[in-house]
Amino acid sequence: MQITATEAKNRFGYYLGQAEREPVHVMKNDRVAVVLVSAARFAELEALEQKKSMAQRKREFNAQYKDWIAAQNELVEKHGLWSDGIVAWQEAS
Questions:
Q1: What is the pTM of this model?
Q2: Is residue 59 left, alpha or beta, with left meaning phi > 0 and alpha meaning psi from -120 to 50?
């Protein structure tokens, strides 16, 4: 089911009930902004996520954010770390 954000606002209780039966895709500015799902389905999704190994989650993260990671690495190569030369604070003895 797909609805507008205005419809969701005006009939929130109704769409909460619908989300118990099927996902409700809420559109805003011509894109899906949020999906309402039942608490049971959300728990299933969380359980699936927890079953992934740390290595798998890291691979997925690196794949999803590879462009951002590359841009950050390029900045470090070009300008160095923002903290170069900073000395940790120490208490006077």
A1: 0.53
A2: alpha
